[in-house]
Design goal:
By secondary structure, this protein is of the alpha+beta class. It has a domain of 51 residues. 23% of the residues lie in helices and 25% in strands. It has a 4-stranded antiparallel β-sheet with strand order 1-2-3-4. The longest helix has 15 residues. The radius of gyration is 17 Å and the shape is globular.
Length: 91
C-alpha cells in the first residue's frame, strides 16, 4: 500500500507545485541569469539566491571582500518570477 499519492492527474492537498510549473519557470529564469554572469548560491523548486559580481575566492571570503550583490529570486503560484535584493551574507 502506497500512502500519500493522489490519483493520476489530480493534485495532492498541500502540494506546493504538483505539476512543476513553478520549478520550470524558476529554472528558465535562473538559466537566463547565469548566462548574464550571475552565480546560483542556493536553489529550491520555488526560491533561489543568486549573486553577481565579487570573486569566488577563499581568501576574499575570509577577508570579507568581493561578496558581490545578492538577490532572492522567488516564483509565485502563477509562475511569475520576482527578484529582490537580499541581505548581505553574514560571516
Amino acid at each position: 500500500m502506497v500512502v500519500g499519492l493522489a490519483p493520476k492527474g489530480q493534485e495532492m492537498a498541500g502540494a506546493i507545485d504538483p505539476l512543476g510549473h513553478r520549478k520550470n519557470a524558476l529554472d528558465a529564469f535562473l538559466e537566463q541569469k547565469v548566462g548574464e554572469g550571475f552565480r546560483i548560491e542556493t536553489h529550491t523548486d520555488t526560491h533561489a539566491i543568486i549573486v553577481v559580481g565579487g570573486r569566488k575566492s577563499l581568501l576574499n571570503w575570509f577577508c570579507g571582500r568581493g561578496a558581490g550583490s545578492r538577490y532572492v529570486v522567488s516564483v509565485d503560484e502563477h509562475g511569475v518570477v520576482t527578484m529582490v535584493p537580499a541581505e548581505p551574507r553574514r560571516n
